[in-house]
């Protein structure tokens, strides 16, 4: 099946083998412009596990995805070839850093071939090896939606947990902290060193109180200013949203973004030079009625529309 074959999209939603958004399963990168990929891995969590089941449930709920955006009337499937390239295969599942190498190796040929990847996690530790796979010529910009800055140094002897990917990325020269904005940050911590690292390195940290006070349009303007014209990555941790909307996640924090705020925020990020994106931290064992997986699938569609603009 080629990535232009959309016959599966017209099947009844409950039939067929579930790929993301019912796009063709692709084994050849030549057949595709934007790849959808699963990273079923939660070996980096510091609290409740379960994100390893994320890709499978998001694929299932993404059978509800349709093609034409109801606001823009944009159809991402019409302007580019979108394919599901499956899940990262793990060879050394019980070793965190070697699992990250598996992730890096899986994505390296994707980015080397000039394709865009939209990935479903998995816990947030997966973003660091994806950055390694992108191997940008200059450090990337970042729009990061999350309750947590994920710039903590280490936890229980590891520097590669889901609380650390963006600190590691800065240290490796893959991420430009001055072109990074973190949105939705909140929740008490036992140490403030992660927040301090973000602020001291020059990241723009938007705590949820500032988001609420200034409103979504001001934060969109701020994000566009911070990221600028260079290549940037979009990383969306579903715990950035309120657990009322996204209960199925490992580290919930009350008082988060609403779905409508998140949709408005994402739609305001059109035209940024996206290098890739991910939606992470969906933990189906804690999900209620599959709502978090449906949310993640829908946010992936919104992000796909952002990525596909490049091909219009
Ligand atoms: Mn996170
Ligand atoms: Mn988080």
Provide a descriptive summary of the structure in words.
- There is one protein chain.
- This protein is α/β, with parallel strands linked by helices and 312 residues long.
- It has a single domain (7-311), classed as Arginase, Chain A (3-Layer(aba) Sandwich), CATH 3.40.800.
- Helix content is 32%, strand content 17%.
- Helix 4 packs parallel to helix 5 (165-171) and helix 8 packs across helix 9 (259-267).
- The two termini are 23 Å apart.
- The mean pLDDT is 96.
- Bound molecules: manganese (II) ion (MN) (2 copies).
- One manganese (II) ion (MN) is lined by residues 146-148, 237, 239, 251, 281.
- The site of one manganese (II) ion has 7 residues, from loops.
Q: How would you summarize this macromolecular structure in one to three sentences?
A:
This protein has 312 residues and is of the alpha/beta class.
Strand content: 15-25%
- Gyration radius (Cα, Å) is 18 Å
| Secondary structure tally: strands | 8
Please identify the top-level CATH class. Answer: Alpha Beta
Q: Ligands bound here?
A: manganese (II) ion
Termini separation comes to 23 Å
Task: State the low-pLDDT regions, or none.
Answer: none
Q: Residue-averaged pLDDT, rounded?
A: 96
CATH architecture: 3-Layer(aba) Sandwich
The SSE string, one letter per element, is EHHEHEHEHEHEHHEHEH
Structural class per helix/strand content?
Answer: alpha/beta
User: Biggest sheet, open or closed, and with what strands and sense?
Assistant: 8 strands, parallel
Helix content: 25-40%
The CATH superfamily is known as Ureohydrolase domain
Q: How does the overall form come out from the CA principal axes?
A: globular
């Amino acid at each position: 099946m080629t990535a232009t074959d959309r016959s599966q999209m017209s099947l009844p939603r409950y039939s067929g083998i579930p790929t993301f958004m019912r796009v063709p399963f692709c084994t050849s990168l030549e057949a595709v412009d934007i790849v959808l990929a699963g990273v079923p891995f939660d070996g980096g969590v510091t609290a409740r596990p379960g994100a390893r089941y994320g890709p499978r449930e998001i694929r299932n709920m993404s059978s509800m995805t349709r093609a034409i955006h109801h606001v823009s009337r944009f159809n991402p499937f019409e302007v580019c070839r979108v394919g599901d390239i499956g899940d990262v295969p793990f060879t050394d599942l019980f070793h965190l850093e070697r699992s990250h190498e598996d992730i890096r190796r899986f994505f390296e040929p994707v980015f080397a071939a000039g394709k865009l990847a939209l990935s479903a996690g998995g816990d947030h530790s997966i973003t660091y090896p994806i950055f390694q796979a992108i191997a940008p010529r200059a450090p990337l910009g970042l729009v990061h939606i999350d309750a947590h800055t994920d710039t903590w140094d280490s936890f229980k002897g590891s520097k590669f947990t889901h609380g650390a990917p963006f600190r590691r990325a800065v240290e490796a020269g893959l991420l430009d902290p001055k072109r990074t904005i973190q949105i939705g940050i909140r929740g008490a911590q036992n140490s403030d060193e992660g927040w301090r690292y973000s602020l001291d390195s020059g990241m723009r940290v938007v705590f949820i109180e500032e988001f609420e006070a200034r409103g979504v349009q001001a934060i969109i303007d701020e994000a566009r200013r911070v990221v600028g014209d260079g290549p940037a990555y979009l990383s969306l941790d579903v715990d950035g949203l309120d657990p009322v909307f996204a209960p199925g996640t490992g580290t919930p924090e009350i008082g988060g973004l609403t779905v409508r705020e998140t949709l408005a925020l994402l739609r305001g990020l059109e035209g940024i030079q996206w290098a890739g994106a991910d939606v992470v931290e969906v933990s189906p064992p804690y999900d209620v009625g599959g709502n978090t997986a449906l949310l993640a699938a829908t946010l992936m569609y919104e992000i796909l529309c952002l990525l596909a603009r490049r091909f219009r």
